[in-house]
Design a protein that fits this description.
21 strands; seven-stranded antiparallel β-sheet; eight-stranded mixed β-barrel; TIM Barrel; about 35% helix; about 775 residues; alpha/beta
Length: about 775
């Protein structure tokens, strides 16, 4: 038996499945870990389908499988079918006497217990197809951690009263946790009652037809079945024990009043389950025709549009800090727009949303980056201190993705903390993800995307306790200045937005130390130089290679760089060099003595381009000098602009020096043009990238082999994978060439392979 850390009974199940069905083409061998999961349950479903003769063995127990699935009990002669049932019990945590293939007393007791847990009478110990399907999935039918007994009672009632009557419907879990499946079962129950106990049209999907048939309920009503449905709705939407007695007394009336007040429902009769109340009990968006005090839009507003919103009863408008609609139309607030909105009498709440929603966006790094953008945009607009910025999670996040979203908000918190919590983080998203993130202390306020009824985290979940805004309907708003898209948004009064700004650009905050450190570490990592996150600013660090010494430093501000002047400067904008690098290099190194130019060539343009991509905006100063002992020192001084506006600029600086000894005994060489070398490198950059070359302030020489030997050229260059890099380049070059890197050389010619040991690196 394989060693496993999980349940030994589940281990036994996995081993039996592997041994019994491992030779079947449809079977995927299970990892034997003793852990009940989707893989083990699917394997059991496949095994069942195989044993009962289903042609398409896919592990999905649907209508086709149910139609041919037998009731399994003591009279079944197929021992594997009985073993599958026994395996299901072990995966669910029921004792059944082992995987024996014998449907004895222990199996019957387990079957009776399971049916009772699902909400049914014990019966005779046989398992009908509806129970077999429930047994062979991952759903829990016992009270789980954080589950409530009264919710479990309601789940059992739904199974016994409604689900069992609906062909092909699966039993819902009875774990005490309200969720989407429970809410769909409640809606199905309402539809069943509305249809006078007919299953026709019962689909568990909320719509206008279902709402229109729901009766108005008030104190003393005799419609007990409908009252029970209301009580179950309150269990989901208020997470409160509303009972299951079907009586509409004073206690239930008070709970209805509390529900109406908490959801800020307008136009309702207090304590009565009317149309608007029913809609909010059954759906996250509720009755879309109800009035709203808040709204949001991607349209940049002018005074006429803003005044039309005010005249329509709106008092709060959500607007975006940045971004576009479809990559074409800007949705970002402007200073002029803000002035017009205030003039119209509206207040603003800020939203940050960029790019296409996807789970891959929700990382710690992305949270840091987007928080920096939001912080910068908000301060440049003059949004006042203590305002809330709602970061959008406009995606159907499953329970398994909650931790990723938490990491994203952990990144946001890191940035806001460094900024002294000048602003506060809010979250826009489905009910479940909003609640989970806020309960973890990573966001302070919720803007709920209740309009997205298809999101798994909305239906069946209570609106977050800290909800400030509730987006519930999208429509075309007819303003006096044309029609534009608008979202109606419920308003709770927990956050009022802002109605004034500071003078734009006056209070833009400096970037955090953490952000500066991340930028520096990333740049030097790209250059192949070690720099830990704990490095000290303005401290010289050294890195050694044979015949080579690199000194490098980081400065908190570019103004702190040693200012001794440089021989030339290249400008960087949006990660690209704005000047002719070839001419710049030739201008600089044309001043060197022939002794150095013939030995060294020209500083690598690839390095300059690499640095430019990392600093994004700023400039790179290029220089050289000779010290008193004749060592040549190549110098780069990089000034990065991290953030700027018309009045303020925030920067950081980098200084890199490369020192080496020239080779005095080198053979005479032909002069060459830098542009020729540069063009060759650009034509072959795909090869270079594939090989993984990282050049640092280096010099690159491609010298033709001369008769009788190799041209010895000393070239200081950093590479990450020296032998492989050069081997790839040599193999792909059109002419015989010698590559000499940092005191090493590699020769392509057969004669030189024999002389210098083929595929070996040697010191010069």
């Amino acid at each position: 038996m394989s060693e496993a850390k999980g349940d030994p009974r589940v281990t036994e199940v996995q081993e039996w499945l592997n041994e019994t069905y491992g030779g079947q083409s449809w079977f995927t061998k299970l990892t034997v870990d003793g852990m009940t999961g989707a893989g083990t349950c699917k394997a059991l479903c496949k095994a069942l389908q195989y044993e009962i003769g289903v042609k398409n063995v896919d592990g999905v127990i649907g209508a086709g499988t149910l139609a041919v699935c037998p009731t399994i009990g003591a009279t079944v002669t197929n021992t594997n079918l009985i073993k599958i049932i026994q395996c299901g019990f072990y995966c669910k945590g029921y004792e059944c006497g082992g995987i024996t293939g014998h449907y004895g007393a222990a199996v019957e007791i387990a079957a009776q217990k399971f049916k009772m847990d699902a909400g049914f009478d014990a019966g005779n110990g046989e398992l009908q197809p509806i129970f077999i399907r429930a047994l062979l999935n991952t759903d829990a039918f016992v009270l789980v951690k954080n589950g409530k007994d009264y919710v479990r009672e309601a789940q059992q009632y739904l199974n016994n009263t409604y689900i069992v009557k609906l062909s092909n419907w699966a039993l819902i879990p009875c774990n005490g946790i309200p969720n989407r499946n429970m809410m769909k079962a409640i809606i199905a129950g309402l539809q069943y009652e509305e249809a006078n106990h007919s299953t026709s049209g019962v689909d568990g999907i909320y719509g206008k037809n279902t709402l229109s048939k729901a009766p108005t309920l008030s104190s003393g009503t005799a419609k007990t079945a409908y009252v029970k449905i209301v009580q179950m709705c309150l269990m989901c939407m208020m997470e409160t024990n509303a009972g299951m007695d079907g009586a509409f007394g004073s206690a239930l009336k008070k709970q209805i009043e509390e529900f109406q007040k908490f959801y800020c429902l307008s136009g309702v009769t207090s304590g009565t389950v009317d149309r608007i109340t029913w809609a909010s009990l059954l759906s996250s968006k509720g009755e879309t025709s109800r009035a709203a005090k808040a709204c949001d839009t991607s349209t940049v507003l002018n005074y006429a549009k803003a005044k039309s919103l005010y005249d329509a009863g709106y008092r709060y408008v959500g607007r975006y800090l940045s971004g576009t609609v479809g990559g074409k139309r800007s949705k970002a607030m402007t200073a002029e727009e803000i002035a017009d909105i205030f003039k119209a009498g509206l207040r603003i709440f800020a939203i940050f949303q960029e790019g296409t929603p996807s789970m891959s966006r929700y990382t710690l790094e992305s949270g840091v980056s987007e928080a920096q953008k939001a912080l910068s945009a908000a301060r440049q607009l003059g949004i006042p201190e203590n305002a809330i910025i709602y970061f959008a999670i406009d995606y159907d996040v499953m329970e398994s993705g909650i931790n990723a979203v938490k990491q994203y908000f952990a990144g946001i918190r890191r940035v806001f903390e460094k900024a002294g919590y000048y602003y506060h983080a809010g979250i826009y998203g489905a009910r479940n993800v909003c609640s989970k993130v806020c309960n973890s202390g990573l966001a302070e306020s919720s803007y709920v995307s209740d309009m997205s009824t298809g999101f798994s985290g909305n239906l069946g979940y209570k609106i977050p306790e800290n909800w400030a805004f509730d987006q519930f309907h999208e429509y075309q708003f007819p303003s006096t200045d044309g029609t534009f898209g608008l979202d109606k948004v419920g308003y709770s009064g927990r956050y009022n937005g802002f109605a004034s700004v500071t003078k734009a650009n006056e209070m833009m905050p400096d970037v955090s130390d953490d952000y500066r450190r991340q930028k520096a570490v990333k740049l030097f990592k790209a250059l192949g130089l070690p720099l830990g996150a704990g490095f000290k600013m303005a401290t010289k660090y050294k890195y050694y290679q044979p015949y080579l010494e690199v000194t490098y430093s980081v400065y908190e501000k570019a103004e702190l760089l040693p200012d001794e002047g440089v021989k030339a400067t290249v400008t960087v904008e949006n990660g690209k060099i704005q000047t002719d690098v070839s001419n710049t290099m030739e201008t600089i190194f044309g001043k060197l003595d022939t002794k150095y130019t013939t030995d060294l060539g020209i500083t690598s343009a690839f390095t300059i381009e690499l640095i430019s991509k990392e600093i994004e905006n700023g400039n790179i100063g290029i220089d050289f000098k000779l010290n008193v002992v004749g060592e040549l020192i190549l110098i780069l001084k990089c000034k990065a602009i991290l953030r700027e506006d018309a009045l303020t600029r925030y920067t950081m600086g980098y200084e890199i020096e490369l020192k080496y000894l020239p080779k005095d005994d080198s053979a005479p060489q032909e002069e060459y043009e830098y542009t020729e070398l540069y063009n060759w490198m650009m034509e072959n950059q795909e090869q270079v990238a594939t090989a993984g070359v990282v050049l640092l302030l280096g010099c690159w020489v491609l010298a033709e082999l001369v008769s009788g030997g190799t041209v010895n050229v000393m070239i200081p260059v950093f590479v990450t994978t020296l032998p492989k890099v050069v081997e790839n380049l040599v193999k792909n070059s059109k002419t015989s060439q010698a590559f000499c890197l940092t005191g090493f050389y590699y020769c392509r010619s057969d004669s030189d392979f024999k002389k210098k040991n083929k595929n070996r690196w040697h010191f010069l």
